[in-house]
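To start, one record:
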Amino acid sequence: MIKCERCGYDKLETISEGKSSGVKCPKCGWDIVTTCAHPLQFDRQKYSVLVNGDRDLNVDKVKAIAKTCRCSVVEARKKLLEGFEMRDLTADETMAVLQMLKQVDALFKVTPRFPHKY
């Protein structure tokens, strides 16, 4: 059991807001708070995603590629048929692209190896 460092009271309240959490003493007001940041926020690596050519096209896959690449569905269809590469992506951008590609069952390769779970 954690006790208050100031008064020794042993019934501290849990506090949680956003990515921060901690404990607070209801008796004297002492508290301790910490913040948990996702490792993705500290990743400064640039990534490339190579999407393999795919003949198994469906409307959802083409629309997802069009949205991600900010292109027309005609261009997205051509990209999917031929394969394409997205370069110089931040970790956040890479995460979003990989989640979308996984959702539509597209085949892809990331370089360098992406260490975050998607």
About this structure: DSSP finds three helices and six strands in the chain. The first strand starts at residue 13 and ends at 17. The chain has two domains: 1-36, 41-111. The chain has a mean pLDDT of 93.
